[in-house]
Amino acid sequence: TIDLLLRPWIRVDGTLNRRVLDRTLGAILGYVMQRPGLMISAICERFGPALQPQDCRELVELLQEIKCVELQKFVNTGAKCGLFTQSTISEMNLTSDVTILDENSEIIVEPNVNAVAILGQFIGERRYEVADIYQCPCHPK
Fold first, then answer.
1. Which residues does 56 contact at the CB level (< 8 Å), separation at least 6?
2. DSSP states of 9-72 as a string?
3. pTM to 2 decimals?
4. Cβ atoms within 10 Å, residue 38
5. What is the model's pLDDT at position 141?
6. Cβ atoms 133, 9 nearer than 8 A
7. How many CB atoms lie within 10 A of CB 97?
8. Are strands 94-95 and 38-39 parallel, antiparallel or unpaired?
9. What's the whole-number mean pLDDT along residues 63-80?
10. How far apart are the first and last CA of the chain?
11. Secondary structure of residue 137 in the 3-state scheme
12. Which one, of 72, 71, 76, lies nearest residue 59 by Cα?
């Protein structure tokens, strides 16, 4: 038996396809920067069916690890709201204690101020001038 981790940025032989990883991280960060305050579920809907929801969440968590975005959990207090009730949405409803068990519809993604510079440092000075997707050992050109 062979254990195969299926991710769009991992090749069949188990190596990292850095071009796909860099471009998907850039696409997700660009979408988050255009619409700050989105839930992860909305980001997954935007990039589906190209990315599965778990893959999308993994990429958002990778952006959090390199400090491009901040994740906050929205806690619903369950209080009913109406036309004449006081607003209950405050800073108390947002917490930064996001765990792996939280739902995608509870986590808010906020971009950092220098997120593009941080992602640029993560990507480095790689140049993707040649399309390596079509290259194989038997057909070099």
1. 28, 40, 43, 44, 47, 48
2. TB-TTS-B-HHHHHHHHHHHHHHHHHSTTEEHHHHHHHHTTTS-HHHHHHHHHHHHHTTSEEEE
3. 0.74
4. 19
5. 57
6. no
7. 9
8. unpaired
9. 81
10. 35
11. coil
12. 71
Between 4 and 67, the more confident residue is: 67
Cα–Cα distance, 40 to 105 (Å, whole number)? 6
Asked if pLDDT for residue 140 goes beyond 60, the answer is: no
Of residues 94 and 73, which shows the higher confidence score?
A: 73
What does the alpha-carbon distance between residue 22 and residue 2 come to, in Å, rounded to a whole number? 27
Measuring CA to CA, which residue among 78, 79, 72, 61 is closest to residue 25?
A: 61
Neighbour tally for 50: CB within 10 Å = 11
**Confidence band, pLDDT 50/70/90 cuts, at residue 30:** very high
Q: Which residues pair with 39 in a beta bridge?
A: 108
pLDDT higher than 80, residue 50: yes
Query: Rounded CA gap, 19 and 31, in Å?
Result: 18
